[in-house]
């Protein structure tokens, strides 16, 4: 097979094709350059790799199982479906993979204070967790809308010793939390490490977060080889910023036989304008340190995203996804709030697994796609998080639809 | 000579620093903002920075964030900001005017079209917060080729190794952000500013303006003794935020501008 080398990006300037880069205020530039150097050094350091592997195994609980979802497969009546069980990780989602990596780097750089933004709260919880484990101060920025709909996670972060700062600006969601974290960072440059939760932001974050999340795809490769003796035929993952998807996809990018599908949140439907599908409903622009597809109006003002899932509620997407979309290597589709909710319920009943609403978007795509495929088609779905945090949201929706029926 | 060069040369001749004022275009409305803009030169502003509103002003503190929200709420956009500059230029051909903001609205407007329209409207320079020298090719280079100055921010974190990279391609003046932080935050000590100016002078002949955290005529005067320009933004904008009528907003901003101008003008005499 010819090597297509889709896994070598980004270039020295942090560009994946036309996407990525370092669009930040000058105050942050020296820090970001420093971070890139430190990360490059750490990546090659056997001691760092060994420490990372230790924490992934004994603290996070890796490898996460690759589980043959027999009942889901029977229900769909087509492709053989495997679930990559990232929801079984410590803290209940894939977010911890990246947090462990970055906290080890922060410690290596001598930083004493960790800041992060969070949407659904899973990244905030994972960050608070590793900060507690390493005895570092932790401040989490979270939009007030998200605080409202994710109270259990807010409480978890507080239990773990983090300070949760509500962000009122904008619509009080992930984008606004990220603005506020960036403001904190420019103010506390010397002491503070900004632990970004997704494959976005200025270089080196998109590449670094991807590398830490790639453990998902690497394990999947080995596990499926053990169970089926071959590569998967397709991969499916949900996308907000896109870190769980990039973690699963990246190790397979050069395997042309593997079809790769990213699922964006279509909210009420892309045609309504109330969605979070940056690739399917946005255009390229520059925000939060990188050039990527953004939801914006014709004056370049950022439009607030909408999704039932707080973790997908972001008007941008990681630059590597923007590039993979541009070159057509990954197919990006979208599913609505209602489709995700339906998949959520089916997964609970068929597999006894309560998925996060984010992951339910990937499952919704599976319900559309799997029935049309042959039985020997191997499909791997990233079950990126568990749904405990979403009880309130789902309950609220069930009550609402009950009322609508009366 | 560009309008910025001429202005800084004149002031050097007079042995005084420039008062550089920042307001956000369209805050709180197009008409009030235009009245403020037109009144600033007579109130003593030597250089005008006009903010281009953006939904996500990541490097700005609460005062300018709210100014952006008010302006966008009043339907300000980049085309209207350029229109505002054209209307300002009808009555003023001397005061340099610099547009300041974030890259995305310019990116959406289209860089070549923006440069042409800004130049034609009478804009003298640009400050784009989220375009470091690593991205010079996107806007800085073509803007300068078209005769627009590109003013760089330098900060306490810009060390001697990085400074030449930042200054290379800077023109008009150098804007020293005296504290690491967002706009409107606490002020730097005079010792820090003095040291920073001395360090910058070793690397550049461009005029040096100091900003962030300067609110009163007294503070402006003490900075004016050390640097070529004093930038005030959030303190002026607070007068717009606190006004209950458009006239109050206009009077508030212009009165503070006049007081700051007096501080700057007297600074090196006493």
Automatic annotation (TrEMBL), chain A:
What keywords does the record list, in alphabetical order?
Answer: Amino-acid biosynthesis, Aromatic amino acid biosynthesis, Lyase, Pyridoxal phosphate, Tryptophan biosynthesis
Which protein is depicted? Tryptophan synthase beta chain
Organism of origin is Pseudomonas arsenicoxydans
Q: Which ranges carry the Tryptophan synthase beta chain-like PALP domain?
A: 61-385
Q: What is its EC number?
A: 4.2.1.20
**InterPro entries tied to this protein:** Trp_synth_b_CS, Trp_synth_beta, Trp_synth_beta/beta-like, TrpB-like_PALP, TrpB-like_PALP_sf
Q: Which branch of life, at top level?
A: Bacteria
Which catalytic reaction applies to this protein? (1S,2R)-1-C-(indol-3-yl)glycerol 3-phosphate + L-serine = D-glyceraldehyde 3-phosphate + L-tryptophan + H2O
> Upper lineage ranks?
Bacteria, Pseudomonadati, Pseudomonadota, Gammaproteobacteria, Pseudomonadales
UniProtKB/TrEMBL annotation, chain B:
* Pathway assigned to this chain's UniProt record: Amino-acid biosynthesis; L-tryptophan biosynthesis; L-tryptophan from chorismate: step 5/5
Q: What EC numbers are recorded for this enzyme?
A: 4.2.1.20
Catalytic site = 49 (proton acceptor), 60 (proton acceptor)
Known partners and oligomeric status: Tetramer of two alpha and two beta chains.
Q: Name one GO cellular component term.
A: cytosol
GO MF annotations in UniProt: tryptophan synthase activity
Judging by the UniProt lineage, the source's domain of life is Bacteria
Supply the InterPro entries for this chain: Aldolase_TIM (IPR013785), RibuloseP-bd_barrel (IPR011060), Trp_synthase_alpha_AS (IPR018204), Trp_synthase_suA (IPR002028)
In terms of Gene3D superfamilies, this protein maps to: Aldolase class I
Function as written in the Swiss-Prot or TrEMBL entry: The alpha subunit is responsible for the aldol cleavage of indoleglycerol phosphate to indole and glyceraldehyde 3-phosphate.
Q: What is this enzyme's catalytic activity, as reactions? A: (1S,2R)-1-C-(indol-3-yl)glycerol 3-phosphate + L-serine = D-glyceraldehyde 3-phosphate + L-tryptophan + H2O
Protein name per its UniProtKB record: Tryptophan synthase alpha chain
- Which HAMAP family does this chain map to? Trp_synth_alpha
Give the family this protein belongs to, as stated in its UniProt record.
Answer: Belongs to the TrpA family.
Alphabetically ordered keywords of this record: Amino-acid biosynthesis, Aromatic amino acid biosynthesis, Lyase, Tryptophan biosynthesis
EC class of this enzyme?
A: lyase
